[in-house]
Design goal:
Layout (H helix, E strand, L loop, with lengths): L7 H15 L6 H12 L7 E6 L7 E5 L11 H13 L7 E7 L2 H7 L3 H21 L9 E9 L5 E10 L1 E3 L6 E3 L8 H21 L15 H8 L9 E3 L6 H11 L10 E5 L2 E6 L12 E5 L1 H9 L10 E5 L6 H11 L7 H12 L21 E7 L22
Amino acid sequence: MSRPALEVADIFRDHGPAWRQANAGHISLEQLKVMSAIENCRTAELGGHVARCDNEECGHTQIAYNSCRNRHCPKCQGAAAREWLAEREKELLPVPYFHVVFSLPAQIADIAYQNKAAIYGILFKASAETMLTIAADPKHLGARIGFLSVLHTWGSALTHHPHVHMIVPGGGFSPDGTRWVACRPNFFLAVEVLSCLFRRLVLEKLTAAHRAGELQFVGKHASLTDARAFAAYLAPLRNKDWVVYAKRPFGGPEEVLRYLARYTHRVAISNRRLISLDDKGVTFKWKDYRLDGAERYNRVMTLPTHEFIRRFLMHVLPQGFHRIRYYGFLTCQTRARNIARIRELLAVPLIPVDAIKAASAKASTSAQPEEPKAPEHPCPCCGSNMRIIETFLRGQQPKNRPTPVPPKIRIDTS
């Protein structure tokens, strides 16, 4: 895949030093680490290796620098998503999957920025408790469900908009665990019911966190340190509708995986959305959800460079905070056992049908000579295998030089 014309790393390298100096004392250590990681990603600062084509007639040589592997880096999330998805693929169940979104109101999002770990944690706990409670109610599904939750803290314009995306199999274990209880076709749980319980749980947990001294307030919200002021701040939210959104079920397992690939390892903005960097600022594509139809897509926005950097770093998570979590029968301790049990209840083989077919096809051709395997890392010039001939550490320069890129021939027809 070719390198985008503009990357977040370019913006940080060009304008990061001045931004750090102008905001000294107001930047967290985590934000500084993220800036440094993105700036150094795939540069000599992190070391790397040199690979050469095994074909002597070709001998193409190229340098590959190491990735930073920071979870906020736009360049590193593709590989991380592929590794993670390889594990998730074998866990898919032959049932419909639903997509449910829980969002925090703007008033709570405002104070969440100063209390990321506490309020993002409340968002996770309240949304999960809501799903598990309503699904277990015999008036709704009457089953013990499982699901995956992913935290996103941004809107398309990089504004602060904390919400969780859930991927939920359409059904669950019966109370006695002896059968699979399937949901109704194209319907999982009533969003109105989910919204009411979610609202109550979030407000209760916020009040408890405030009482326990777990919330901090500065600047315009400093007065909320007082319990009465905090209660008055939350009071209008008790009579508002909170946004819980449920999409139609996915088309099949492949669509679930494609969705997971897009959402689980997404960062605040991808490099492909960036258009230009100039004296006016950073121009990028965004979606305006206030518009309908095709008009909402590929809108263009320009932010002053210092504001773009501020908005990007707004979404840096606290150290050690997990943004992908599992609940119900998909918790890590029991996931493998529960998936095997569900497949047994649904009377489907533990090994996916496609895997069985592939194994049968391989067995039928085992007597034939094995075809040569395609190179794991093919040469971009001739397709032969690329072999590592040198590795170098952080800050070192490689001894071998890359093959020069031939100049582009331009024909002037004027």
